[in-house]
Amino acid sequence: MIQIGLKLSVVLVLFLDFTRQRVEGICSVQHCNDRTRCVLSKDQRSCKCTTGYYADQCDKHANLKVMCGRDHMAIGATEDFFKYHNVSLESLHFPNKSCRAQREVVDGVPHYMSRISKDQYLTCGGKPLEKNHTHIFYSLSLLSEPRVNGNIIRDPVIKINFTCIHPYIKRASLTFPVIPSSSEHHTVMHVDEVDATIQMMLYTDDSYSKAHSTAPTIELRDKVYVEVTVTEPADFFLLMVSGCWATQSPKPNSTEGYVHTLLRHGCVDDQTVSFLNASTGQSGRNGDSSTVRYSFDMFRFLAEPHELYLHCTVQLCEPDDHKSCTPNCNSISKREAVRADPTLGLLSYGPIRIEMPDRPQSNILMTVVLPVAGVWTVGFFLIILITVAKAGSRRLAKMGSTDNSM
After folding, report:
1. Which one of 22-36, 65-79, 82-96 scores highest in mean pLDDT?
2. How far apart are CA 97 and CA 91, in angstroms?
3. % helix, strand, coil for the chain, step of 5
4. What is residue 27's three-state secondary structure?
5. φ, ψ dihedrals at 211, nearest 5°
6. Which of 223, 224, 226, 231 is CA-nearest to residue 243?
């Protein structure tokens, strides 16, 4: 197994998956009747409002807002909530006090909101990133500075913890292709704190049960069965093969030799190409799962060398982002040259050799010389027969004229 670490450029997509908030508040014990909104201490001498509620009777809600957008995160609550706890707008900030809150009106209600971009996460005091096999966890706290009177503090400090859980990378690009040299044709794409492994293989038939273990040799017009799949994490990403093309050079963007396009913008650009469903083997679509299978008829270029290299660009999408991995094959602007898009991962496979059987000279003699010689032989015998027939006719005519004179 060959693992190659590659330098990548990344577009990370964030979405709201899950949030967790905690707000501590003090309420009046005599009014703590609803356990869903306030909780009494064991000695029943104090109580605290549950998450989001405040006021002496825990009958008001902070209307917490947590947003995990494509390129930003935000947290906030109603202005009234902060005023109840004697917290001013100027005192609200993330762990880094330079990242402060602003007053915003949300759905007609004034809120104190703090927003940061993904790039500001660590600068503003974000906790060290956590991850599992499929997601990354971003956690931050919104804090208030305590109000100091002389040398004492009487008002509680507000602390709101929140977490945005984001999926792994949506797209990644490789700076150079990986030329397979073993039965495990794959590349490990290092994306920030996570890895994704994509593999491209060629198989012997449409069952996709036996892969070519060495550089394959395939006859012209025979089917070539290609599989591109995300092997790790398995069955998580959607995969779209954006483009595939063949070159005479192992370099995908080489200007030397011929180039033939098979797929362009996720759509068929060679009439022999067909997508196959990975589970049924029947006709399938590009971008429906973490595995793409397609076939094409073997060909060769006009000039030597009679071998080719296959290159494919791939795009990864989140499981719920079918739109980004669904090619629009009805309105495609054709490009003159095939070049790898810098936002896509690139894989290469090769060489694939074309079987060019040498025909023995005897075969050429049998198929060309002998049939021609046969034609000449038949013609020669026909000429002889015609000559003999004419001679016979003249003899008979001569004999007939002799009999008449007698």
Report:
1. 82-96
2. 9
3. 15, 40, 45
4. coil
5. -90, 155
6. 226
